[in-house]
Design brief:
This protein is α/β, with parallel strands linked by helices. The chain has 34 helices and 34 strands. It is elongated.
Length: 1012
Amino acid sequence: MKRLLLFVLIIMGCCGRFASDAKLRPATPAVVLPVEPLLVKPVQDDVRCRQWVDSVLDKLSLKERVGQLFIYTIAPYQDKRNKELLRKVVEDYKVGGLLFSGGLMQNQVMLTNEAQRMADVPLLITFDGEWGLSMRLKGTPVFPKNMVLGCIRNDSLLYEYGREMARQCRELGVQVNFAPVADVNINPENPVINTRSFGENPVNVADKVIAYAKGLEDGGVLSVSKHFPGHGDTDVDSHNALPTLPFTRERLDSVELYPFKKAIQEGLGGIMVGHLEVPAFEETSGVPSSLSRSVVYDLLTRELKFRGLIFTDALAMKGVSNNASLCLKALKAGNDLLLVPRRIKEEVDAVLAAVKSGELTEQAVEEKCRKVLTCKYALGLNKKPVVRLSGLGTRINTPYTRDLIHRLNMAAITVLGNATEVLPLDPAIGDVAVLNVGAATEIQPFIKQLSMYTHPVEFQLGKDLPEAGRKALREKLSKYKRILVCVTEHRLAAYQSFFAEFAPEVPVVYVFFIPGKQLLQIHRGISVAEAVVLAHSSGDDVQRQAAKILYADAVADGRLSASIGGLFAAGEGLDLSPQTEPHFVPEEHGMDSRLLAQIDTIAREGIREGAYPGCQVVILKDGKEMYNKAFGTYTWSTAKDKEATPVTPVSVYDMASLTKTTATLLAVMKLYDKGRLNLTDRVSDYLPYLQDTDKRDITVRELLFHQSGLPSTLLFYQDAIDKDSYDGTLFKARPDKLHPTRIGRQTWANPKFRFRPGLTSKARTDECTLQVCDSLWLNKSFKKEYLQKIADTPLKDKRYRYSCVGFILLQQLVEARAGMPMDEYLAQEFYAPMGLRRTGYLPLRFLPKEGIVPSSVDPFLRKTILQGFVHDESAAFQGGVSGNAGLFSTAEEVAQVYQMLLNGGELNGKRYLSKETCRLFTTTVAKNSRRGLGFDKPDVQNTEKSPCAPSAPASVYGHTGFTGTCAWVDPDNGLVYVFISNRIYPDAWNTKLLKLDIRGKIQEAMYQAILK
């Protein structure tokens, strides 16, 4: 009964406490399950660990147990007075650990060895190395500050850094590093945290904290995340006074506490409590969090379930040092280890007196001591360590260390702005002005690397330049097409007058080899810059990398870790790499950007008038991109689908008959190049089923000129339909009860038919291997049927007659001579080596469906939306690979194919076709039509019937496609023009694209934009 009454009283007491806490914490914390620290977890159930801890505890007096909870700060000096102090704290007070305050690493190692020799229980040697050993020790590797590291996107580099720091610590005999800083630095005026933080985004800070700390602990060094519950949004330095966090519980949960919670959940082993006043947790005014039981025990230990070691921040700091009996209060608050001030005797005596009076229990001291000893065992301190002094510098400063520092610095470089895509710079622009702000000699590594791409012309900006001098300098710079402002000077006040009025008409790129926060000194100049490269520091390797990045000769993918005033927000940054296509200024290449901008209006007119839901337009001049834009959406927005997917430059479209010249013709040209076929060859020589027909004398040239006598098209799919499965006719010129489905301008169809038995399947089978659409597979035997249909169809006269059938035969010819399917041959010879990742047949084999624009809706034959499946019925019933249609691509990638042809068969230094083959196929014209060898051409005799704009010269070659596509090459002007759309979505009979002549209008706008 007494036990029951006691239980009820405990519950009531807890409820009362929770009710009191509720006033302080509006947000109800989620239930948190405890996570044992990963560093200690392997030894907690180890019998040897328990035996060692018990044996040590049994030998320690109460005073010595208290001593194990103290970490004493000592200077690494070899003088007699310092050594005597070291002896006193180790031998007399039996401190649990030491913290060396700075100096030379050799001195620290010697004192460490001496201290460990004197100690009865091996000491925890701690270190305050937030940005490496160089934070405290001279002559050690200098790693970037955390604010710089926060810009890195690859967190595995942070883990690697933590692992290397652990190695260096172990070389010095250090087992605990007071890092990482887990504070979220929201306040840019923070006088103490600032660049020590990984940034102002709690998630990014947490990710970096975890990666670095795991590296430390996997390397055998205890990490200590600090300064709990968060020192990032303060304007007071806790070294000098007590800062206040006047925030709600909700705010603290989402910002300050977030990284610590994540670190605890990941099983990291140490947390340092800062000296902060936090009214949301501690009701008593003026009580620092490090001395607050509400913060240390109630919040950190009980609510957040932290099971690792809890350290106080240095108790000599003024944010806490005016409190009496500091160490006693810190232990009562729930801390495990105390970074003690100099007056160790008074503090130890105060703790012992508290135990004697019952203010602090001996059991509490024992539990903390046991916790510390267990951690020591896990860190290998069950034996006295000895650090080897010889070769120490070599072991610390290794080639690997230098390489890691290099990689961290490179990964942190961040490119900002670039809205006009001035980066990467165009190497074709010969002279580039370089305005140096800082010592002239300091940027020579940058200048030397820059000289690999361009001719840099250096200008020096003097301090406090008078108005006349500023004007003269601006006039000199205005003569250059590009200006680079390189900043190595940290104090920029003397240059503010120049940058306040520096807004040239030519593109300006700033390259900063200084910390990001210093950019605000010349914010007026930066605000009108086209782009900024934030390199953070001015090391030679950083300078060289920055120059490479300007020309996309190296990767930059950093993201800003903290905002830079109103100039740039945290998280900003963009990727540049050797794969980044340069953006060119049209005026520098003979075109008027203002007139090119009229294309926007024409493209949007087509959408507004219902010609197509979306489109892509690309124009190249002399191989350089003058225009590349995407408009509209995949489909028309409806009440059900208000948020239709927007078209982007990488959205993939059905090319329709543009396949003829972007696929089939390329394969024919390649085989011609290799001597595998000639234009005068009879096709029947390679396709035996044509030999005993009226097609035996058709030549390759006749097929390419569309003068073979073959019909324009053959409706192969009709042979797959069971003619006894439907009533009446299949098609009719007007709708009626049997023909309700419209499929053309004046054609309605009967959708109630069935395919021939055994010819199709809803899923792939051993026999049905040709996929027509999502749930329709065709028997592979049907290929013989459509080829036989071509052979049996009577030949007509050999005048010009545009023929898809002819290009289907060319596909068969290609496969016979290449010895492989045409889609594989094209991928092997062209698309793959050209780097065209979104070009090919059967796109669902290599692209996600959501990246492909729907071509049309087929309510009759396939009864589905065609997305990733070719619209053309003839190509569809060949399994999607055909000579007349079936290719999918983007305007960008199609433009690359035609640029290769314009270049005479070469692209990006690789040859795909000989110049002679390209010249033959792109210049030959039929005698009795406008057609070339496979290519369409302008009709210069009758411009009304021409597929091109009136200004297109006779030399132009290319093709169009039924789905609303075209690609035209103009060798006279060095132009490539590509237009891609899905004008037949949802209805194949939509002819508004043709009536509005959108393709021709855009092409004409291109010609009008050529500078005379």
